[in-house]
Amino acid sequence: MDPGSVSDVDHVTHGGTADHSLVDFSTGSNPEHPPGLAGVYESALSTARRDSLDDYSRFRVAAAAFVGCNPDEVVPAAGVVQALRLAVGVTVSPGDSVALPAPCCGEYAREIRLQGGEPVHVPHDSLLERVDPAEHATVILGYPANPLGTAYPRDELRAFIDDCRRADTPVIVDETYLGFTRLPSTAGLDGVIALHSVTNVFGVPSLRAGFAAATGDLGDRLSRARCSWALSSPAVEVATFCLEQDDFLEATRDRVERERPRILAELDRLGYDPHPADGALVLFRAADVDRVLRETRRRGFVVRDARDYQRLDSHVRINVRRPDENDSLLDALAEAT
After folding, report:
1. What phi, psi does 316 have (nearest 5°)?
2. Rounded Cα gap, residues 206 and 272, in angstroms
3. Chain Cα centroid distance, residue 26
4. Whether 133 contacts 163, CB under 8 Å
5. How far apart, in whole angstroms, are the C-alpha atoms of residue 12 and residue 102?
6. Please, which of 45, 103, 258, 301 could form a disulfide with 309 given CB 3.0 to 4.6 Å?
7. SS3 per residue for 78-103
8. Mean pLDDT of each 10-residue bin along the chain, 337 residues long
């Protein structure tokens, strides 16, 4: 990429708030975290006083078990955005065309442009049918999608991945929110780079721990290009512990599966036109987004203004939290209609 063009690539707007008195529905993170996590973190602080090995063997084993691939296919990263940069860096060259859904996470296009590539946005719902893999160097998609919250049907996604593999076009699959569902990961499929955020689903997003997973030549390229010592010792210990908490994960998925239909039904009753959802993210249309933002904040909540996503001009995104918090947010949304 021409170094001068980096100045034309802006940072991406995300959710979150510096006001921790507000209940945050804007980031998509789990409001709960596994019991015992604080003790693991405190114990790990002592390891930060000495140099650590760069192999991350326990983390790789736990991550591989989490997504169903081989440990040697796991490449650690300091969060899913770093994993995305690594994946785009080994698959996109200056002048390359990269297909991605619209709307989608703004980081996809940013990373493509930083490599000198050209993002080509295709409507999310028709991407699998409309994209000819031979016309693109890479395809990036979310599973489930952000901000829509829906996941492509498994068989259709697998068929598309097969088409891309035959065209020698890698598919980067962002599985940041997959842990909130019982959908199978694409990790371990040839031709795929699966991206995972460990810390989002386990309620510690600022810990910044994640990984990419790929087989064969793609995996080799990721391993050669990755940053050394990408994860701190405390991050490795906590992330490894989290990945092994099966009971916590099942409880989270049970809660999301119970609460999501209830939230969607109430949003629909209130006239908010919710989009179908398969995970913890819920997107809905609002007649007056600014009023929704003001009223929810006044009532102690922060929600995601989704108008900065492509093709969304009157939408808000929230995530499924605890039942009482969901109820209180829905009450606030009722006042904003």
Report:
1. -130, 145
2. 31
3. 13
4. yes
5. 15
6. 103
7. CCHHHHHHHHHHCCCCCCCEEEEEEC
8. 62 82 94 94 79 83 97 96 97 98 96 97 97 98 97 98 98 98 98 94 91 98 92 91 97 98 98 97 97 97 95 96 98 95
CA distance 25 to 31: 9
> What token pair was written down for 315?
């939408």
CA-CA-CA-CA torsion sign (288, 289, 295, 299): positive
Instruction: Yes or no: say if 167 and 199 are a contact pair by the CB < 8 Å rule.
Output: no
How far is the C-alpha of 193 from the C-alpha of 184, rounded, in Å?
14
Residues 6+ apart with CB under 8 A from 19: 302
On the 0-12 / 13-18 / 19+ scale of CB atoms within 10 A, 184 is: middle
**Residue whose structure tokens are 């386990």:** 202
Distances 190 to 64, 73, 186, 214, 223 between C-alpha atoms, Å: 15, 11, 9, 7, 16
Q: How many residues does the chain have?
A: 337
Within 10 angstroms of residue 169's Cβ, the number of other Cβ atoms is 22
pTM above 0.85, yes or no: yes
Dihedral of CA 154/222/64/148: which sign?
A: negative
Rounded to an integer, what distance in angstroms lies between the CA atom of residue 219 and that of residue 236? 20
pLDDT at 193: 98
Q: How far is CA 243 from CA 172, 183, 264, in A?
A: 22, 16, 29
- 8 Å CB contact between 249 and 201: yes
Helix (H) or strand (E) run with residue 211 in it: strand 210-213
Amino acid at 11: H
In one letter, which amino acid is 317?
R
Residue 5 has a pLDDT of: 63
> Tell me, what's the pLDDT at 228?
87
The sign of the dihedral angle between the CA atoms of 12, 13, 15, 16 is: positive
